[in-house]
Amino acid sequence: MSATSQQLIRTGLVGDGIQGSRSPALHEEEAAALGLQLTYVRFDLADPATPQRSLEEVLDYAQGAGFAGVNVTYPYKQQVIALLDELSPQAERLGAVNTVIFKDGRRTGHNTDWFGFRENFRRGLPEAPRERVAQLGAGGAGLAVGYALLEEGVGQLVVFDLDRARAQAFVETLGRLFGPERVAIGSDLAGALGAANGVVNCTPIGMTRHPGSPAPAELLTPRLWVADIVYVPFETELLRSARAAGCRTLDGGGMVVFQAAEAFRLFTGVTPDAERMRARFLDSIRDDLGTSATGDAA
């Protein structure tokens, strides 16, 4: 496909509570800049007005309607696998999918989340110490983040999740890939944060529909760096508390931009300008806040 093609490319996002997602603007504005016609629609399964009432119905509809693919977000990144024909090598390793491509009557699952977090981490916290990191949340996005952290040289990753079986699956998956000594299930959050260089929130806590913070403010000290993959709202309660405590922080904006850039490439066959996408994303944040947003890390 060339950048001047006039063929309509239909894409979208399926998840729960996604009305605040910035993905439609990210994809549609970059497509327009490249001379492509692309639509990106939300399938919000928490919204009674959505005609499709299940993940399976969304996939059936999108594939039948000629969509190039859809992104998949919370809470369907693992559930979707049973509805696919095949997985990319990365998605198969992680056991989580955030991008589904429809081609030749088949559904292929990909994972671009790990790439998005890695790029955000590299740019936003390039010199961050990483001997020991605490991660909150072991779901689909959490697996991708854990993979990226270990790829980036984290010595030991300690994961916390209320679902013990999910945490165990996280440890087994990443332990097979990186060695069992580098990943463990945590039981004492205060002790883990006291010994860690950094903490990453991969839970939905902090989202507009799930307000609050996954870590008590009194556990955040200036020697910690703190990252959050939530980006709506842009400044979560966790990041606000971390900044007040003097921590270096990394918001979720960069992750969503860089994962979107890779998903865009999969949807269209065209490599987007990720820096242009990032600049437009930050402009939209500034417009919403009515103040200055300085980038991925503060």
From TrEMBL:
Keywords: Amino-acid biosynthesis, Aromatic amino acid biosynthesis, NADP, Oxidoreductase. The keyword NADP applies. It is an enzyme of class 1 (oxidoreductase). NADP(+) binds at residues 137-141, 229, 252. Gene3D superfamilies: Leucine Dehydrogenase, chain A, domain 1, NAD(P)-binding Rossmann-like Domain. The active site is at 77 (proton acceptor). One of its GO terms (biological process) is amino acid biosynthetic process. It catalyses: shikimate + NADP(+) = 3-dehydroshikimate + NADPH + H(+). InterPro entries: Aminoacid_DH-like_N_sf, NAD(P)-bd_dom_sf, SDH_C, Shikimate_DH-bd_N, Shikimate_DH_fam. Residues 254-279 form the SDH C-terminal domain. GO terms for cellular component: cytosol. Residues 13-100 form the Shikimate dehydrogenase substrate binding N-terminal domain. Shikimate binds at residues 21-23, 73, 98, 113, 231, 259. Pfam families: SDH_C (PF18317), Shikimate_dh_N (PF08501). GO terms for molecular function: NADP binding; shikimate 3-dehydrogenase (NADP+) activity. Coiled coil: none annotated. Signal peptide: none annotated. Pathway: Aromatic compound metabolism; 3,4-dihydroxybenzoate biosynthesis; 3-dehydroquinate from D-quinate (NAD(+) route); Metabolic intermediate biosynthesis; chorismate biosynthesis; chorismate from D-erythrose 4-phosphate and phosphoenolpyruvate: step 4/7. SUPFAM superfamilies: Aminoacid dehydrogenase-like, N-terminal domain (SSF53223), NAD(P)-binding Rossmann-fold domains (SSF51735). Its EC number is 1.1.1.25. Belongs to the shikimate dehydrogenase family. Homodimer. Involved in the biosynthesis of the chorismate, which leads to the biosynthesis of aromatic amino acids. Catalyzes the reversible NADPH linked reduction of 3-dehydroshikimate (DHSA) to yield shikimate (SA). This is Shikimate dehydrogenase (NADP(+)). It comes from Phenylobacterium soli.
